[in-house]
Amino acid sequence: MLQALSIRDVVLIDALDIEADSGLSALTGETGAGKSILLDALGLALGARGDSTLVRKGANQASVTAAFTLKPKHPVFKILDEQGISHDNDGAIILRRVLGVDGRSKAFINDQMAGVNLLRQVGELLVDIHGQFETHGLMDPKTHRGTLDDYAGADTNAVHSAWSEMQRVTSERDDLLARLAEAKRDQEYWQAACDDLTALDPKEGEEESLHAHRTMLAAREQVASAFGEANDILEGENGAIPQLNRAWKVLDRVAVKAGENLTPAIEALDRAASDMRSALDILAGWFDKDSGPDTLEEVDDRLHALRAAARKHQCRVDDLPRMLADISERLSAIRGNDGRIAELDRAVKVARAAYESAAKKLSDTRHKAASSLDKKVMAELPPLKLDKARFETQVKDLPEEQWGPNGLDAVQFVVATNPGAAPGPIDKIASGGELSRFMLAIKVVLAATSPVPVLVFDEVDAGIGGATADAVGERLARLADSGRQVLVVTHSPQVAARAGNHWIVSKAANDGTTRTTLLRLRDQKHRTEEIARMISGAKITPEALAAAGKLLQQAS
Predict the structure, then answer these.
(1) Would you state the pLDDT for residue 120?
(2) Burial state string for 415-430 with b = 16 or more CB within 10 A and e = fewer than 16
(3) What is the DSSP string of 303-350?
(4) What is the DSSP string of 263-298?
(5) What is the DSSP string of 428-486?
(6) Residue (of 72, 88, 4) closest to 41 by Cα position
(7) Which residues in the chain show pLDDT less than 70?
(8) pLDDT at position 133
């Protein structure tokens, strides 16, 4: 409920602090006293559009703060959590709006900066203000489907989940089809690229290897000459190895006679000859390992081919093997995705069937709830002097392209005010006074299911009196008894008498400045006098006092 409302420098209000009470509260007063200013101020705190004309003359800014206490599981807290707005566990929430003379405004929720759109989203879940010219709430057909679902107690989660799953698998299938179609358009290109790279047969690290081989080829002649010279030195007729062999033979012939003394020398000569032969094998191996192209021209041609392929595919030469693997995989995907597409087609059919099943169950629930809602609203109309009117909840099938997470139906509340007339949108068919009473009847029926704790009615009794006004007051009291906090701006004594809390709005001039003030009538005497004034006008007669007392007695 609304706990308190603090208003500063809004039009004719310089400073006003209101401590609100539960139940039904009535605001009365002379026409032009400023009752609408109070509603404009409350609207500012709830995110309504504001302009600089609302700032009191001479002030730099206007501000309005509205404090609420809500049940812990109220849906507004989920919104705050999603937006990162902190809140206490006691259910308290404070909305504040500051409006400057330049027309710029700032919004705060629990003293944390918030956008005006978020403030409005939160405000719509806290307070429903209905006047003759309101266009939001039940006046907006976009809210009718959700309102009917709330009334029906419908569990829409199954439809939401089924829709999300259907969208997911459909999107996956469509994305795969799109990729496949694109791949098939380019299949000829990719096949040619695969054939070219396969023929080229690039190897990882080949560029570096070719550079090394090119260096070797450039030095090959010089290395061959050195190898020949080294070979002559070691293995020539007078080379080191033949000389070592001769020395070894000379010593070996006398080795037996010399005993073991020559053995180390003979073994050393043997090792030296073996090491020299190993050196020659290593030198020869340098040429044996030369398995690449035989000429510099062949090396350069290979490097040119590799680099041309790398430029074509916009990658490094070392990335060509990976590129070949990617292209081969792409071609395999083109040839092998038929099974995956068939699998996704089956998943889409299953998901669609699940969605349609859940959505049709929801549609059945809506149709049944619509019939119940219509009967209950129609029962409320005769006492409100709308006995010739008809209320109807239309639940119509949507074309398939308009299906969505909310199901297969379009829902709209329509009315007809005259017998035989075709029903139409409430705000287009009903007059101002009729519109207010229609809204009252609907909200009385919906009171048990609406999450909005505060209802405000402005001039709901316009153009009526007597028994009809009393019926309006009785329904407002019923709304309050259902757990709602109800605030009504009224000129009807029958309505005011039903209120548990009564405030009088007045306007007075002082020191050349006009101000709007608000006074709470706390005792029976002052309430009787105010209701008597509403009956007879400025001059309160004994008859008016008696009538006022009777109204209060009947309402108690």
Answers:
(1) 92
(2) bbbeeeeebeebbebb
(3) HHHHHHHHHHTTS-GGGHHHHHHHHHHHHHHHHH-HHHHHHHHHHHHH
(4) HHHHHHHHHHHHHHHHHHHHHHHHHHT--S-SSHHH
(5) HHS-HHHHHHHHHHHHHHHTTT----EEEEESTTTT--HHHHHHHHHHHHHHHHTT-EE
(6) 4
(7) 131-137, 286-293, 336-337, 430-433
(8) 45
- Residue 266 domain-assigned? yes
- What integer pLDDT is reported at residue 293 of this predicted model? 67
Amino acid letter at 253? R
pLDDT value at residue 157: 94
pTM over 0.90: no
Separation between Cα atoms, residue 427 and residue 141, nearest integer Å: 10
CA angle 375–379–385, rounded 5-degree value? 135
Cβ-contact 157, 483 below 8 angstroms: no
How far apart, in Å, are the Cα atoms of 246 and each of 233, 239, 526? 15, 11, 144
pLDDT at 135: 45
Token pair of 166 as six digits: 């259907």
Q: Give the DSSP letter of residue 57.
A: T
Rounded distance, CA 92 to CA 65, Å? 13
What integer pLDDT is reported at residue 510 of this predicted model?
A: 76
Q: How many domains does the chain have?
A: 1
479/126 Cα distance (integer angstroms): 15
Residue 184: which H helix or E strand, with range? helix 157-185
Asked if residues 552 and 497 have their Cβ atoms less than 8 Å apart, the reply is yes
Nearest to 357 by CA among 394, 407, 396, 292: 407
Cα–chain center distance at 397: 27
* Confidence (pLDDT) at 532: 93
Domain interval for residue 322: 183-336
User: 39 is written with which tokens?
Assistant: 């509603």
Nearest 10 degrees: Cα torsion 165, 167, 173, 177: -170
pLDDT of residue 110: 93
